[in-house]
UniProtKB/TrEMBL annotation:
Residues 767-780 have a biased composition (Basic and acidic residues). This is EAL domain-containing protein. Residues 512-766 form the EAL domain. InterPro entries: Biofilm_reg_signaling, Diguanyl_cyclase/Pdiesterase, EAL_dom, EAL_sf, GAF, GAF-like_dom_sf, GGDEF_dom, Nucleotide_cyclase.
C-alpha cells in the first residue's frame, strides 16, 4: 500500500464510519432478534456483532498500537489476498513487501499520535498473486474508557473493478486521441494492447493485419510476445485451419480456442507457440466500418479456457478501436497519396518532384553517378483532345504513362506535371550522355507506338529536353528549368526530338527574362505609340480606313517596329496587356478624329492569337468601345488565318459574338494559313487581306499573280471584299485593280505615320473623301500616286 497512491477526501467529512458501523450493527441485531427469536444465551450482542463483522462485504479490522491485527474479517483477508483467512496476530510486515508495510505503518502511527482519522484513502497494491488491487480505506483511532488511543479501527472497500473501468475509459480516450492526432499505428497498437493486458490477468495481446493481396496476415504489434514467435507467424496464410487468427480472418468471426494443445485449428502451428507456454488463444476479426475484415486482435493466455464475459467485452472494445485506427490510417494514406499523386495516371505529381530529384541527387553523390532529368511533352496532344474528345485524351495520357512506367528501372522516377507534361528522373553513370540518350530514345519509342482511341489508331510523338546532374545544374530547380529549356528547344527544332541542355540556352533564357522585364516596364511607363497606315478604296480613291500599327519608343534603342517585340510579347503572355492598350488607344484616337469633325474612318486593329484566347476578350472589346465612345462600326479587328484555324469552332463562336457587337472582322495575311473553303464560308468576316508576300513580286511572278487572282475571285464568290497590303508600285496597283481587288494599303499610298500626320492629311481630304493626291490622276481619270507621295 503506497502513501503516494493515497488520496484524502477533501471538504466533506463523512459521518464517523465507526459510529455508522456500530449504529448499523445495533439495527441489525434488533432486526435479527425481531425476525428470529433465538434462545436467550445466544441472543447476545457480542455474538451478533462478531457475525456481522465477519460477514460484512467491506473489510473491517482492528489493530493494536503496534499495528498487529486483533480483528480482521473475511473481506479484509480477501483484499489483502495473502492466502490466509485469519490475519489475527499478523502485522503488515508479515503480509506486504517491506516498503508497502512501512507506508501503512507510518500512516497508522500518525493517527495514533495525532488522534486524527484518515478517511477515504485510495490505496493501491499488488496481492500475493501479483494482481493490482485498489481499496478505499478509512482508518480511525480506537479509544478505551479513559480516552486513550489503544489502536486503529479500519474499514476498507475493494474498488478494483471501478478503478479498472476508469482506467479502461481513460485509456480508450487516450488512444482515440492518439488516433485523432494521426499517430502511427506502431504507437497506437502497443498502447491498445497494454491497455487490454492491464485489464485482464495473464493475457498477452497481438494484432495482425491482412496483407494487401488479402492472402495472408502480417504481424503488426505484439509488444509482449516473443519476437521469434511473431516472426514465425508473420505472413501466415488466411485459411480454414490456421490457428486462431488466420482462421478468424478467414471466417470473419471470432475464434476462441480454449486449448491450443488439443484444438485441430492449431494442428500446424502449436509447435510454434509451445515454447512460450500459451495454452489458449482468443482471436477476433478487426473490421472496417463497412464490415471488411482488416486484421485480427488476439489474446493469448497461459491458462487453458475461454475468456470471461468481461474479457470477451474487452476483445470487442479492442477490435473496435483497432478498426478505427486502421481506417483512419488508410484514409490518411489515401489523402496523402491523392495529395502527392496524379488522379488520372496514379503517378507522383509535381508536389513530389523536388523531393524526388533531391533524393536522386543524394544517391548519385553517394554512388558517384549522374542523374538525367528528362522533361517531356507530347506533340499535338491538343489535337487529339480537340478532335477525339477529352476521354480519348485521358486514355492517351494513361496509356503513355503506363508504357513509360513499365520501362522504369529501380530508382527511376516518373512524375506527371500536369496536362501532357511528364518528368522522368533516371540514374546514369557519370559522363555517359550517349547511354542516357539511348535509354530516353527507347522511352520515346514506347510512347510513339500506336494507340487505339475511340476506334481510331493514333500515334503520338513527344519532345524531350534533358538536363544532367551535375554538369547542367546542381539543384532540383536548376535542373528542372534547364530540362524545360531543352524541351522547348526540341519543340522549336520541329518536335519529335530529344535535346540535351547546353549553356547557350541558359544565356538566351536569361536574355528572355531581361526582355520580359523591359517589356513590363514599357507597359507600366506607357512607352508604346500607334502609327496609322491609310487604306484606300481602289474604285473611289477614297481613304475609308487606317490600320493601327504599334511601335515601342524604346528609351535607348529608339522607335522599335512590332516585329522586334510582338512575338516575344506573345510568347511571354504580355501581349494581353499590350493588345488591350492598342485596342483602347486606337478606339480613343478614332473617336477623337471624329469629334474633331474629320471624315469618319474605320480603324483596323491587329489581334494576336493569345488575346483571342482570353475568356473575356469580347468583354474587353466592348469596354474599349464604350469607354472611348466609338461606334462599333468604326472598328475592325484583323484576325490571322492561323489564329482562327487553331480552334475553328471556338473562333467562329467568338467571331459571331464580336459581330454581334457591331465591329467588322477581317482575315489578315490571307493565303499564308490553311483555311478550308468550307470553314471560310462560316466565318462572319467582311474582307480578306492578301498577304504582302503575294503582292511584292506582282505582277511579274506568275504564281503570285495566280494566287492573287484566285484569292480575289474566291472572296468575291463569298461576297467578301479584298484588300491587298504591301502595295509599293504603280504596277502592283494596276495589276490588283485589273484583277478586281477592292482596296489597297501600302507604301505606294502612304507609310504608317503618327496620328498627328494622319490628322493633317485627313484635314486636307477632299469633300468626296479622297486622300490628297491619291485617286486624282493628272488626267483626272484614275490613281497616279508616286511611291512615298504621302509618307
Ligand atoms: N515592305 C512593306 N511593308 C509594308 C507596306 N505597307 C505596310 N507595310 C507593313 O506591313 C505591316 C502590315 O501589318 P500586318 O501585316 O498586320 O503585320 C503587323 C502585325 O501583324 C503586327 N502588329 C503591328 N501592330 C500590332 C498590334 O498592335 N498588335 C498586334 N497583335 N500585332 C501588331 O506586326 C506586323 C508588322 O507591323 P509593321 O512592322 O508595322 O508592318 C506593317 C506595315 O508597316 C509596304 O508597302 N511595303
Amino acid at each position: 500500500m503506497s502513501r503516494s497512491s493515497t488520496q484524502w477526501s477533501s471538504e466533506e467529512k463523512p459521518a464517523d464510519p465507526t459510529s455508522l458501523l456500530l449504529a448499523a450493527g445495533e439495527r441489525l441485531i434488533a432486526e435479527a432478534a425481531r425476525r428470529f427469536p433465538i434462545a436467550g444465551d445466544r441472543h447476545d450482542r457480542a455474538y451478533w456483532m462478531d457475525a456481522m463483522i465477519e460477514e460484512a462485504p467491506v473489510g473491517l479490522f482492528f489493530k493494536d498500537r503496534d499495528g498487529r491485527f486483533l480483528i480482521a474479517n473475511k473481506a479484509t483477508a480477501r483484499h489483502v489476498g495473502c492466502g490466509r483467512d485469519d490475519l489475527t496476530g499478523l502485522t503488515d510486515f508479515d503480509i506486504f513487501p517491506r516498503e508497502v508495510a512501512q507506508v501503512l505503518r507510518d500512516c497508522e502511527q500518525q493517527i495514533i499520535r495525532t488522534g486524527e482519522p484518515a478517511l477515504d484513502m485510495e490505496e493501491c497494491y499488488r496481492d500475493v498473486a501479483g494482481r493490482r488491487k485498489w481499496v478505499l480505506t478509512s482508518k480511525l483511532p480506537m479509544r478505551n474508557d479513559q480516552g486513550e488511543i489503544v489502536g486503529i479501527v479500519g474499514i476498507a472497500r475493494d474498488i478494483t473493478d471501478r478503478k479498472r473501468q476508469e482506467a479502461l475509459h481513460r485509456g480508450q480516450a487516450e488512444i482515440l486521441q492518439m488516433i485523432a492526432r494521426g499517430e502511427a499505428l506502431s504507437e497506437v497498437f502497443p498502447a491498445l494492447i497494454f491497455l487490454i493486458e492491464d485489464q485482464v490477468a495473464d493475457v498477452t495481446g497481438s494484432i495482425l493485419l491482412i496483407d494487401h493481396d488479402r492472402q495472408c496476415v502480417r504481424h503488426a504489434s505484439a509488444p509482449n510476445l516473443h519476437p521469434d514467435y511473431t516472426r514465425a507467424i508473420d505472413g501466415a496464410p488466411i485459411g480454414p485451419a490456421v490457428g486462431s487468427c488466420g482462421t478468424a480472418a478467414y471466417r470473419g468471426e471470432q475464434v476462441l480456442v480454449a486449448d491450443i494443445a488439443e484444438d485441430p485449428l492449431w494442428a500446424d502451428y502449436r509447435h510454434l507457440v509451445r515454447p512460450y507456454g500459451f495454452r489458449a488463444c482468443w482471436s477476433s476479426p478487426i473490421r472496417s466500418s463497412q464490415g471488411q475484415v482488416l486484421g485480427t486482435f488476439a489474446l493469448y493466455s497461459r491458462t487453458p479456457g475461454l475468456p470471461t464475459p468481461a474479457c470477451h467485452k474487452l476483445l470487442g472494445v479492442a477490435t473496435h478501436i483497432a478498426g478505427i485506427a486502421i481506417e483512419r490510417k488508410e484514409a490518411e494514406d489515401r489523402i496523402q497519396f491523392m495529395a502527392h499523386h496524379d488522379a488520372l495516371t496514379g503517378l507522383p505529381n509535381r508536389g513530389m518532384l523536388d523531393e524526388r530529384i533531391a533524393t536522386a541527387i543524394e544517391i548519385a553523390d553517394d554512388e558517384n553517378r549522374s542523374v538525367a532529368l528528362a522533361f517531356l511533352d507530347l506533340d499535338n496532344f491538343k489535337l487529339v483532345n480537340d478532335s477525339l474528345g477529352h476521354k480519348a485524351g485521358d486514355t492517351l495520357l494513361k496509356t503513355v504513362a503506363a508504357r513509360m512506367a513499365d520501362g522504369l528501372r529501380p530508382g527511376d522516377v516518373l512524375v506527371r506535371l500536369g496536362g501532357d507534361e511528364f518528368v522522368l528522373i533516371v540514374s546514369a553513370p557519370r559522363r555517359n550522355a550517349k547511354g542516357v540518350a539511348a535509354r530516353l530514345e527507347a522511352v520515346r519509342q514506347t510512347i510513339a507506338a500506336p494507340v487505339t482511341l475511340e476506334g481510331r489508331t493514333v500515334q503520338v510523338s513527344c519532345s524531350m529536353g534533358v538536363a544532367l546532374y551535375p554538369e547542367h545544374g546542381r539543384t532540383p530547380t536548376e535542373l528542372l528549368a534547364n530540362a524545360d529549356l531543352a524541351m522547348y528547344r526540341a519543340k522549336e527544332i520541329g518536335r519529335d526530338a530529344l535535346h540535351f541542355f547546353s549553356n547557350d540556352m541558359a544565356i538566351s533564357a536569361h536574355e528572355k527574362l531581361r526582355q520580359q522585364e523591359e517589356l513590363r516596364r514599357a507597359i507600366a511607363c506607357d512607352e508604346f505609340v500607334l502609327h496609322y497606315q491609310p487604306q484606300v478604296d481602289l474604285r473611289t480613291g477614297s481613304v475609308f480606313a487606317v490600320e493601327a500599327l504599334i511601335r515601342w519608343k524604346h528609351p535607348e534603342r529608339g522607335l522599335l517596329p512590332p516585329g522586334e517585340f510582338i512575338p516575344f510579347a506573345e510568347e511571354s503572355g504580355l501581349i494581353g496587356q499590350i493588345g488591350d492598350w492598342t485596342l483602347r488607344a486606337a478606339c480613343r484616337q478614332n473617336k477623337a478624329w471624329q469629334d474633331a469633325g474629320l471624315p469618319r474612318l474605320v480603324v483596323s486593329v491587329n489581334v494576336s492569337a493569345r488575346q483571342f484566347q482570353e475568356i473575356d476578350w469580347v468583354e474587353r472589346v466592348r469596354s474599349a468601345l464604350s469607354d472611348s465612345g466609338l461606334d462599333a462600326r468604326y472598328l475592325e479587328l484583323e484576325l490571322t488565318e492561323s489564329l482562327i484555324m487553331a480552334d475553328v469552332q471556338q473562333a467562329v463562336a467568338l467571331m459571331y459574338r464580336l459581330e454581334a457587337l457591331g465591329v467588322h472582322l477581317a482575315i489578315d495575311d490571307f493565303g499564308t494559313g490553311y483555311s478550308s473553303l468550307s470553314a471560310l464560308k462560316r466565318f462572319p468576316v467582311g474582307r480578306l487581306k492578301i498577304d504582302r508576300s503575294f503582292v511584292q513580286d506582282l505582277p511579274g511572278d506568275a504564281d503570285d499573280a495566280a494566287i492573287a487572282r484566285a484569292v480575289i475571285s474566291l472572296a468575291h464568290t463569298l461576297q467578301l471584299r479584298v484588300i491587298a497590303e504591301g502595295v509599293e508600285t504603280r504596277e502592283q496597283l494596276e495589276f490588283l485593280r485589273e484583277a478586281g481587288c477592292n482596296e489597297i494599303q501600302g507604301f505606294y499610298i502612304g507609310r504608317p505615320v503618327e496620328a498627328a500626320a494622319i490628322e493633317a492629311r485627313l484635314n486636307e481630304m477632299e469633300p468626296e473623301g479622297r486622300w490628297p493626291e491619291a485617286g486624282r490622276d493628272r488626267s483626272g481619270s484614275h490613281l497616279t500616286l508616286q511611291p512615298g507621295d504621302l509618307a
